[in-house]
Amino acid sequence: MVENSKNLLIKLIFLISVIALVSAFFIEYVLGHQPCNLCILERIPYLLAIIIILLNFKFSHYEKFFILLLSIIFLAGAIISLYHLGIEQGFIQESLVCDLKSGSNLLSKEEILKQLQEKNVSCKDVTFKIFGLSLTSYNILISLLITVSTGKIYFNYEKN
To answer: Does domain 2-98+105-159 have CATH number 1.20.1550?
Structure first.
């Protein structure tokens, strides 16, 4: 029974990760909402989760390690998302992470013109909401749920 719930959770995390990435790319490329730098960073845990889960299917004898890794990755994702939410709400000022494109001083004339034509999105601007909440808010919830679920499985792993 516990083994089935563990496998179900891993498959659910895989499905959530795929849906999150497909949704992010759909919102960006089809609906035309440009992501900020933190939004792009918030996609990394989902990509890593897909890779880790695929590795888990191949190397199942490292399953406990992979579950711990998923928990750590999504905890880091939750922290990044909380930081982003703090910027969105005005509690935290934008940092260099939000302005990575203009971090380099060695730009040619063509690169400067290209940057002026691009619309840079600020980390504090929410360009897309679902039911009144930003995608960052949903990302916090999802990341924390996955962190708690995988943490619970990890700490109860030997009991199974």
So the answer is: yes
